[in-house]
Amino acid sequence: MSERDTGRLAGRGAVITGGGRGIGAAVAAALVEEGARVVVSARSTDEIEGVADELREQGGEAWAVTCDVGDPDQIERLAAAAGDRLGAVDILVNNAGIARSAPLKALSLQEWSLIQEINVTGTFLCTKAFLGPMVERGWGRIVNIASIAGKMGAPYIAAYAASKHAVIGFTRSVAAEVAPSGVTVNAICPGYVDTPMTEGSVANIVEKTGHDADRVMKNLRAMSPQNRLMEPEEVAYLVVTLCDERAKGVTAQSLVLDGGGVQS
Ligand code: NDP
Q: How far is CA 103 from CA 100, 111, 159, 164, 246, in A?
């Protein structure tokens, strides 16, 4: 018998959106490590297949299902495909997200709408697609990856911060709605994490300010009292913890993971 057969999440079925790289890929690996069977999903088929292949090579059960969370039809197809592969889906990690920064005067309606569509409406539609059967079975875990930008604003991120504040409000309301059912709904709010998204943010700042990348990275690290970026595995650890049976009383929360900067 392998460790996975006795893991804390042995036999649980999990879907991770945005699972092709960064935080989502780390979450998929951590869930498999604890015995869950996972469907990893994103738009880039090659990336999610790479993640699923690697997890299978390590002895886990993993499948890749391509889905753009900006498209309601694709979300329906993801739910059907995940049901086929996993049977019951016990865990949903709404991780797919995009970040853009711009001063308000340069923020177009199109850009604003895209960020809300992927970060907020995507989370809403995926939750809707998977929540019902969890409530019927009386067990479920939904973890939404928000951000410290869901707890505080900052210059140039009005659209992103609005989307992440919305994810937290959504999390609290859905959690309250299903509280008696055995399904918990929580959000995790990381500070800057060492992922391709942050690499993109650094490149964007370098392009706009002309500062060198090392200086920009130093400034991002300094935003945490621990003077570092968070690691994707730290977010994954919190996801696994929230999915644990013993975390059944933790719901409607938005847990900050930033080395102590935002205290809430
Ligand atoms: P990455 O950009 O490194 O990865 C994002 C993942 O989401 C990719 O797999 C990407 O794949 C997928 N994705 C993006 N758009 C869509 C879409 N429309 N439909 C489905 N999948 C999509 O980001 P991170 O790992 O850094 O971030 C993950 C989450 O964590 C995001 O919600 C982000 O806002 C949040 N977060 C990140 C922080 C950071 O510092 N990095 C800090 C706080 C929160 P593809 O493009 O192929 O679809």
A: 10, 12, 10, 18, 44
